[in-house]
Amino acid sequence: MDPRLRLTLPIEEIDPAALEQIEAALKLPCLKLLAIMPDVHSGYDLPIGGVALLDDHVWPGAVGYDIGCGMCHVKTGMKRSELPDLQELFQSLSNAVPVGFHGLKTPATDVKPFVSASRFAALTDSVMCHAVKQLGTLGSGNHFIEIGVNKEDIVGVTVHSGSRRSGWLVGDFYMRLTKGPVPLSSKLGKAYLKDMKWCLQFALDNRLKMLQACLAALGLPPALQEDIINETHNHAIITSKGVLHRKGATPAQKGQLGIIPANMRDGVWITRGLGNEEFLCSASHGAGRKLSRTAAKELISSSDVKEQMKGIVYPSLNGGALLDEAPDAYKKIDEVIARQDGILVDVIDHFAPVLVMKG
């Protein structure tokens, strides 16, 4: 096995498409180290659950389309018994946070200006056009808002979302131009880093806006910044050892708090990083998909999901919606957690869902 490769699971358990992407990454002369998390599955240029350290190169494809996607979590202090009626809460959240392809009825006025470092005016205009319509919106796919409770019956709120269409446009623009890693010193490398930085901030602003809306719906005051756990799992960071790329991987520096969700039935795990340098101070960003979205829709029935989701308020399954996000579409979270607990992170809390919103 290549000495630059670090695996948290047996290589035979990695799906062939993801393995091909791993092998392609190992052929890059600028690759210093590649760590594979236990939720690995195929993505675009780099598999989801991949962490790549490059020497003086930045790789837009190793960050992907949803630049800055991540999670925010706050432990509210509210007891489960103090929660409002869950159906009414679901409706309140639905009114406050647009989901799926829905955007804001009135454009946001507090979006930080974006001017692409590429000097491509059409990219600047398109990014801003979408940003003002999508700040504080959830999106679709595996993005979610979850109200859960821990063993002490304390309520926690988790928001998973990213930079929405704006980040997709930036990612797509640079991935088309680069077709692989480019030197940090190049015009494209410098421009990508600057535009990526804007997307990271927009993604955080987007999550925070939704998180505060959730707290308002619960009748709680806004959370203070220091009480909010935030982690970004799609990014590139310049470090003293090289350029660190995480593609669907949670940062796990020593002492750093993180969030690992399972699926819409099994909740989220709160973790504390152990700073494992061998695995690039990273952990999984979820359970990882077991079935493709197409396969999930073909193999999983609405009745299966309804049975598994008893006791949890969640969106309607009308027309087969959400079957691709069913619990059975994901790997077993217990196995994924076991492969990193005490090695990459320590698990410090778990919140089981009582309400889930998805697009």
Automatic annotation (TrEMBL):
List its EC numbers: 6.5.1.8
Q: Which GO terms describe its molecular function?
A: DNA ligase activity; GTP binding; manganese ion binding; RNA ligase (GTP) activity
Pfam families the UniProt entry points to = RtcB
The question of whether tRNA processing is a record keyword is answered with no
Residues reported in the UniProt entry to bind Mn(2+) 1: D66, H143
Active-site positions on this chain: H285 (gmp-histidine intermediate)
Q: Which cofactor does it need?
A: Mn(2+)
Q: Which SUPFAM superfamilies match?
A: Hypothetical protein PH1602
Recorded catalytic activity of this chain's protein:
a 3'-end 3'-phospho-ribonucleotide-RNA + a 5'-end dephospho-ribonucleoside-RNA + GTP = a ribonucleotidyl-ribonucleotide-RNA + GMP + diphosphate
Q: Which GO terms describe its biological process?
A: DNA repair; RNA processing; RNA repair
What keywords appear on the UniProt entry?
Answer: GTP-binding, Ligase, Manganese, Metal-binding, Nucleotide-binding, RNA repair
The top EC class, named as a word, is ligase
Ligase: is it a keyword of this entry? Answer: yes
* Amino acids binding Mn(2+) 2: H160, H233
Instruction: Kindly state what the record says about how the cofactor is bound.
Output: Binds 2 manganese ions per subunit.
Annotated residues that bind GMP are located at 142-146, 233-234, 261-264, 285-288, 358
- PANTHER family assigned: RNA-SPLICING LIGASE RTCB
Protein's name according to its UniProt entry? 3'-phosphate/5'-hydroxy nucleic acid ligase
Q: Which organism is it from?
A: Halodesulfovibrio aestuarii
